[in-house]
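Table 4 source record.
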Amino acid sequence: RKGPTFILRILVFPHPSAREMGSGNSKGAPGPVQAAGYPPVVVNKQVAAVKGATKDDSAHSTASTVVASSPAPIAPGVAPGLVPFQASGFASVSAPAPELGEKCFIGAVADKYLRAQGLSAATLDDWTWPSKHADAVAAAILSWGKDNNATVFTHWFQPLGANNVRPGQSGQVHNNMMTFKKDGKPIWEFSGKELLRGETDGSSYPNGGMRATHTAGGYTVLDASSAIFMRGDTIYIPTIFMSWTGLATDEKIPLLRSCEALTREGKRLLKNLGYTATGVVPNIGLEQEFFFVPRDAYARRLDLQMTGRTVMGKQAPRGQEMCDHYMAGINQFALEAMKAIQHECYALGIPLRTRHREVAPNQYEFAPMFGYVTSQIDQNLMVMQIAEEVAARYNLACLMQEKPFQGINGSGKHNNWSLGTTDGVNLLNAVQINKATGNPEAFNAIISSIVSAVDKHGDLMRMAISAPGNDFRLGACEAPPAIVSTYLGTDLTAHLEKYMNGGDANYVPSVQMLSSGISAIAPFEVPSEDRNRTSPFPYGGHRFEFRAVGSSQNVSMVNTVLNTITAEAFSAYSDALESGKSPKDINMGLLKEHFKVVFNGNGYSEEWPDEATKRGVWRIDSAVEAMKTTSSDKNVALFEKMKVMSKTELEARENIMYVHYYGMVEMEALSMIDMIVQQIVPAMASAGLDTGALTGAAKSVQDKLAAVHHEGDDYKKAVLARELRLEVMMEARDVCDAAEASCPANLWPMATYKELLFLDSQQDGNGNTTVMGQY
């Protein structure tokens, strides 16, 4: 910065002897990360904490140092949380575990360093602190970093078009806070200006035409709503990313704008209903589903490595048909990886509370506590990154793609969304909001507004979940269909129907008592509403759950849409109130007009799609057609009115989605062609089996891909890519799967579904599997 600058670009390739570093695996799969003669690589597994954790909450808080060069056999008698992560011949290494939450610059951790600057941790609770205390906070962060051997900082932002392709789905440039004086002694420098703002090339990220090589200026600016945290030697500063022209070139800026719209219109509505709130905020909890597969099997699947999903693969003799995986005991090998992931997350202050098996074999889930929307999204991105990195240390691959395997469930990221005031009143809790306002119409006003928003803007909700991987997941009796409706449950629905016919306004959720018929077990209370897993947006009592969201997604757009359509509905409601209409008249009008979007039945039934069409509910089967609605006149008017996105920003995002979609399909198609031509055809030929159908399948994929390449319009390219993916490639897949069924097993050149999906049945007493070699 203060003198001549040069940039050194380095390409790093695997060492030629990388195969020799393996575990004796006959297929040359990746093994230990240690070559002969080198010391073991030590990775400190961080343990962490949830604010206010109980003894039970922190039961797995013991941690160990991990030798990254071998998998983790589970030794008998090892204390919970301790992993003897070393292969024969390696020295045992240990180090103290960090305290819970100490890698997150909030609360007591921050207070220690801020007080040295005349401030306190409370300073960070006021999100306007960057304009008042930047230099002092920077000095505190520098001291914190030096005490923890973290001498590097990075502005951590979220480029567009990143899901399932960009590692960590983030952008970051690492800068050292230390340089040298002329006498060779180190000098530490980290200013408030460096903390608050950075500059980078805005044209090298997907931007939909908002930037170009000759107009490339882009700026990162600190986001005070999300906590600064530390990993290894690096301090991560969450930021927005904006172009030189002021356009939002990231995921976070529209989200933050939508939060402002929601608090503005939420406060206005509550004041009109009799309650003066200081703020209205969206809180979310994200249920992250994923798969663990053996890493050497993963290394023998080009499609998984390149795209995150299998483009071919014969079904194993066993799948999920016995319903034997969901919430079963966690595979001991996977459990050690999950504990290590939780330990690292706890150190960062990420309250990753729940872990369990999911429905499909080798499928798992993590779920955190609720929190403010921007910090929860930041934390979820870090959870996904940590899960992928830690899995590799255990010779596993963590798959976040929505549908890695055909014939079994895919993965989602259920977006539990709620609204609350800054003083703790939940707007979706009937008792709380009616009491706070002193108005029995208040809860009806909130629900009728949200119902109207879902009915009017179901196209945007569908657009927000149009991740490429959701093509194979939505509506497949594992995830809600691509029809946007909401489930309110029998109790709330009955109340609203009576209310529309002149019934009582005050809603008090009913409860019921269940008895097991066992004298030693007392009857217990259960909620008034059942659970409907077939609805894309069910009300669960105090929250809505957007179940259709894809597992690989950055959910910023999902929550930007929910916040914005709700803010607009609140705004329209306040307009009506301020024009002299009564809450009852407004509520009844909204419910009668938009109640068609409420569906409490089975979303997987064959009758529902036709019924939804008759009702006039949004049904967009194609993800590409859903993307096309992004910049419709209706939606441009919505986002511009709420000051969330401009027409230019919407059109750019629509273009990025098209490019991302056909880019993913291109990678899948090229992987399929290579696997057929370079692997399957030679294997079949060596077995003396016919290869004509395979050669024809490869050519059909190649020809359709050429048509995609030839098309110049991005929307039309995406349409053709969808046809390639869902028609041509599916036909080619049938040919490949038939070939696998007839090819001798010892000649089949890639990992099978059996090898990928059944850790349990291939595992020895140490948690190792037959497909992972001997350790």
